[in-house]
Amino acid sequence: MPILEAIRLAFGTIRAQKLKSFFSLIGAFIGVMFLIAVVSIVKGMDRYVQEDFAAKIFGINTFSVSRRPGFHAGEVSQALRRAWARRPQLYWDDYHAIRAALPPQDLVAIQSSNQAEGQAGAKTSSFLQVSGVSQDFFQIRDYEIADGRVFSPEEISHGVNVVVIGRDVADSFFTGQDPVGQTLRIAGFPYTVIGVVQKQGTVFGISLDRFALAPYTSPIKTVVNPRKVVDEIIVKAPTLAGMRDAMDQVEAVMRTRHHLRPYQDDDFSLTTQQDVLSFWAKISRVLYTALPLLVGVSLVVGGIVIMNIMLMAVAERTREIGIRKSLGARRRDILAQFLVESATLSTTGAVLGILAGLALARIVQAVSPLPMGVSPLSIVIGVALGVGVGMIAGVYPANRAAKLDPVVALRYE
Amino acid sequence: MSGSVIRTIGLKRDYPMGGEVVHALRGVDLEILPNEFVAIMGPSGSGKSTLMNLIGCLDTPTAGQYWLAGTEVSRMTDDELARVRNRQIGFVFQTFNLLPRATSLHNVELPLIYAGLPARERRRRAVEALASVGLGDRMDHKPAELSGGQRQRVAIARALVTEPSIILADEPTGNLDSTTSEEIMKIFEELYRGRGQTIVMVTHEADIARHAARVITLHDGVVSSDKRQAA
Ligand SMILES: Nc1ncnc2c1ncn2[C@@H]1O[C@H](COP(=O)(O)OP(=O)(O)OP(=O)(O)O)[C@@H](O)[C@H]1O
Ligand SMILES: [Mg+2]
């Protein structure tokens, strides 16, 4: 029997037995849906993290010095946590020392952040993200000033209460007005707005324009940290090689300042964009390891369901098989008929699973900033798995059908 | 010998049943020539259906030889037998044995699908066969939408459509009332007289056997009488 005839016959049977077919489809459907959705989402995140996230959050050739690591790839034990807590704080003086040790083309900045109450006119917000920063911060972050200007060196050295704000802060506190020259009260203390940073967009759906930056020497210092303590010192070099040199320098400076002996580990952390990427690589590796398991289990379960339903179908259709044999169907015709039927079932499930998986990835794309990274290979694999599972699950029932004795089959009630 | 459609020598069929063996056929010698209309009669359990299954290549004998249209089929493989069933034999069963979900047209097309005919040719021949049994207007009906007599006519069309050497009918009127049975027998007679079709038919009823030109009687697995009669 030609294959097209067999496929048409299979669809006829599927239509005639909708409920049974639904159960046969569902295993392949779920397995392939997971495959497509997870691969598309992980691929999308991959692209996002590599192209967007790491660069936006961290910047290129940039690293930060902090008490604890920013991203830690791997298990964080209680002991490790306690060890981090015992580490010494970073201070303004560390910043000065690092600045002095690095060549002038490297940018060095302080950033210490906290949430504080902001207020301007009638508008109050309890959760304004405020930072005390130093001069190079704007250049390191690549902030373009849309309105006004950044701090002057004098404002920093004198700790003047001025503030540069993000677009969202400008829009919410000074709706419809020019924010430059206005007063923004942070934790009760008035600051003059001197500049607004160009819109930065979002990362993982979180706005990057909700900040207020004041000189680290200004009264903000009491809001963000205890006296002269620093959250992190950020360093940006013009080149990758420059960054590696700077990291060596900074490590040496800090070890000296902390009086560490050669056998002692660093009691501070240097975090680079690479750490963010390897942190992500670890997560995606876990997802990719779990995926075949998830897909495999669904397909095996689906295959068993198909096999049982096909065995039932063979039993129910014993007489039909007898009729077909009496009319000249050979073993291989019957075998092909049931194999095609079983493969058609699971392939239909797989195709529906592909559509559902794409739809799922589409939904994730719609509600999150993640792009959709559809992998053509995963679609090909999905279809192949569908056909394969159906064929394998169908072999035993189809073989049973093919071997039926025509006389016995014809007499079957 | 080469002129006969069916020729058997010492055909035997045993069924092992637990420890015992049922000798359904104990040695049947038979010769049926082209354009014969043969009725096989005999009491229940005498081996009529067993003989029909052997003649129809649905089953293979325990011993003995069988030539169908000059070819020995008693030692053929499964696939070769399937081919013989497809090309040489048309079955008509007591219980019709139509595919319930398929239309009349599709049921009649079925043997042609296994013969590997292209779709248009299949359709043309199936339409012709259905028209020849007077069902030109019931082609899209499913078996459940047809009367018993109509179903049996679809089955006859299906048996005819491959232009087989022989039509085998095992109690074709067994499930039909007497008027409908007469209609079916009219079709058989037409095939026999009009087309020269060879027909072998099992029946219990003398009224039905009366249509045949030759009556073979089986008794306990052997031929007990073989008479020609004026039809
Ligand atoms: N598959 C089988 N297994 C065991 N015994 C069988 C089988 N088929 C037939 N027989 C036995 O063979 C003998 C002949 O059976 P067969 O069906 O040929 O009789 P029949 O003449 O067609 O009878 P009926 O007129 O009732 O249809 C019977 O005794 C029957 O019990
Ligand atoms: Mg019988």
In short:
The complex is a heterodimer of chains A (413) and B (231). Chain A is of the alpha+beta class.
What characteristics describe this protein?
heterodimer, A: 413 residues, 14 helices, elongated, B: 231 residues, alpha/beta, Rossmann fold, four-stranded antiparallel sheet, 7 helices, binds adenosine-5'-triphosphate
CATH superfamily (homologous) name of chain B: P-loop containing nucleotide triphosphate hydrolases
Structural class of chain B: alpha/beta
Helix content of chain B: 25-40%
Distance between the termini of chain A: 26 Å
State the name of the first-level CATH class of chain B. Answer: Alpha Beta
Strand arrangement across the biggest beta sheet of chain B: 6-7-8-3-9-10
The overall pLDDT average of chain A reads: 87
Q: Kindly state the mean pLDDT of chain B as a whole number?
A: 94
Please tell me how large the radius of gyration of chain B is. 17 Å
The number of helical runs of chain B is 7
Number of domains of chain A: 2
How do the helices and strands follow one another from N- to C-terminus of chain B?
EEEHEEHEHHHEHEHEE
What does this structure look like?
The complex is a heterodimer of chains A (413) and B (231). With 413 residues, chain A is an alpha+beta fold. Chain A has 2 domains: 3-53 and 278-410, no CATH class; 88-267, no CATH class. Chain A is built from 14 helices and 14 strands. Chain A has helices spanning 3-16, 18-58, 78-86, 92-101, 137-141, 153-158, 167-173, 220-224, 240-257, 273-316, 318-326, 331-367, 376-402, 406-411; strands at 62-66, 90-91, 107-120, 123-133, 145-148, 162-165, 183-186, 189-197, 202-203, 206-207, 212-215, 229-230, 232-236, 269-272. Chain A has a 6-stranded mixed beta barrel. A two-stranded antiparallel ribbon of chain A has the order 2-12. The longest helix of chain A has 44 residues, at 273-316. The relative contact order of chain A is 0.19. Chain B is globular, with a radius of gyration of 17 Å. Chain B has 231 residues and is an alpha/beta fold. In chain B, helix 6 (178-195) links the parallel strand 7 (166-170) and strand 8. In chain B, the strands form 2 sheets. Chain B has a 6-stranded mixed sheet with strand order 6-7-8-3-9-10, with helices on both faces. Chain B has a 4-stranded antiparallel sheet with strand order 2-1-4-5, with helices on one face. Chain B is built from 7 helices and 10 strands. Chains A and B meet through helix 1, helix 11, helix 12 and helix 14 of A and helix 2 and helix 3 of B. The site of magnesium ion has 2 residues of chain B, from helix 1.
